[in-house]
């Protein structure tokens, strides 16, 4: 079950990141500076989480590839 939860967590985090970035790029004039900063901070946290998950996946793939070569 952990694998599915991680996948959902990554997927939902990535989608949320996309939404925040779209807001920052296209709707910036509609938000206060405080909201922009809050969105930016949230986007940074989501980006860090997504990068970590991608790095973990990359390591697993490399490990599988190395095992198949042996």
Would you write up a description of this structure?
The chain starts with a helix and ends with a helix. 89% of the residues lie in helices and 0% in strands. It has helices at residues 2-26, 33-69. By secondary structure, the protein is mostly helical. It is built from two helices and no strands. The protein has one domain (2-69). Helix 1 crosses helix 2 (33-69). It is elongated, with a radius of gyration of 17 Å. The mean pLDDT is 89.
Could you give the order of the helices and strands? HH
- Oligomer state equals single chain
From the N-terminal CA to the C-terminal CA, the straight-line distance is: 30 Å
Low-confidence stretches: none
Structural class: mainly alpha
Number of helices: 2
Q: What is the radius of gyration?
A: 17 Å
The tally of strands reads 0
Residues in β-strands, percent? under 5%
Q: Determine the fraction of residues in helical runs and give it as a percent range.
A: over 70%
Major sheet: size, sense and barrel closure? none
**Rough outline:** elongated
Query: Can you tell me the number of structural domains?
Result: 1
Mean pLDDT: 89
Can I get a quick summary?
With 70 residues, this protein is mainly α. Helices cover 89% and strands 0% of the residues.
């Amino acid at each position: 079950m952990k694998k599915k939860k991680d996948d959902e967590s990554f997927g939902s985090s990535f989608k949320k990141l996309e939404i925040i970035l779209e807001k920052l790029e296209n709707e910036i004039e509609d938000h206060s500076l405080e909201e922009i900063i809050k969105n930016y901070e949230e986007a940074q946290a989501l980006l860090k989480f997504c990068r970590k998950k991608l790095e973990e996946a990359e390591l697993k793939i490399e490990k599988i590839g190395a095992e198949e070569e042996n």
